[in-house]
């Protein structure tokens, strides 16, 4: 089946969700595919990612599409709902490739789903540019067709350990006096975040006094918080995607937990400020991207411009932070456009080689892939929620505000 298609009838598309309305136009399209979490525990972030894909595709198409060897193509995506289940994601990736004829894939949401789908795309030699799977375990398998625009997971909360060390020294103490409590979802991403935190803590000789796994449904972490209340750590670190973040902030407020430093992944995706108000103040939130950073490119403009245009296109985000999951999804689409135009062909092997040679500065940050397929050109940053506003506080070269410590 050709990947260059003309829209005909909805029946021809089966049960898939397609990112563009049907049309009688004779325009030619490059079809991308994605199994994405629209239901299940990752559905919040799955929708953020889909919106980022669709925003970039519409912007590219409105600007004339993709120029491949002098021929203009519009982009579209066939989506299937993977229900936040790895086995389902792998099944749907197989369907997209073997039945729908997709030859270019956008990634799913989460490291666990990416881990399930990558063997399928590798088997069929299908280039996949993914934006939501950060686990470092994805990049030690020797995959040739997997490329990720985001920073890997062990970097997510490294700055929190450095900040805790700095605060100890400010008080005349040794960083080795710092006590850490940790609670992580039992999934590839969060376990890699844990490994990064543990490695960084070991460098300072810090004490890990709680090292818990979150329950499978991510709905109750009171057992961990009871230990935190008793042991009084200097830093509490939590990673459980958006549902885990919401549970952590809610129960910290309900149980009256006071800890000098609290670092959590997926704050903005969980909308912790909107849901929990002042309870969220002082939380350190890891992020791949922020609209206040000085990144820019000729197409999307600055990070701030992307933020403004996306909110105009999706008014439901008007009173929220645009999640970094959305920005990096748009960046993944941009990588495809850039690679198609440099390759000058629709041949997937030539495209794969062009993606591997990517060297871009974008509104999202630098994108350059190592031989393993991970992005080596962009750091993580850490923001603190201060009076309901997310302000970058680390690393120092990106900080716009001073750290508030101890947490109010």
H/E topology pattern: EEEHEEHEHEEHEHEHEHEHEEEHHHEEEE
* Beta fraction: 15-25%
CATH class of the largest domain: Alpha Beta
Q: Give the strand order of the largest sheet, numbering strands 1, 2, ... along the chain.
A: 10-9-11-12-13-18-19
* Rg computed from alpha carbons, rounded to a whole number of angstroms: 21 Å
Largest sheet: 7 strands, mixed
CATH topology of the largest domain: Rossmann fold
Helix content: 25-40%
Instruction: Report the span from N to C terminus.
Output: 59 Å
Output the CATH homologous superfamily of the largest domain: Response regulator
Question: What does this 3D model show about the protein?
Answer:
The strands form five sheets. Strands 10-9-11-12-13-18-19 form a seven-stranded mixed sheet, with helices on both faces. Strands 1, 2, 3, 4 and 5 form a five-stranded mixed sheet that branches. It has helices at 43-62, 86-98, 111-123, 158-170, 188-204, 222-231, 241-255, 272-276, 303-313, 324-343, 348-356; strands at 4-5, 17-18, 29-36, 66-68, 71-81, 105-106, 128-130, 146-148, 179-184, 207-213, 235-239, 261-264, 284-287, 296-297, 301-302, 359-362, 365-368, 381-386, 389-394. The radius of gyration is 21 Å and the shape is globular. The protein is of the alpha/beta class and 408 residues long.
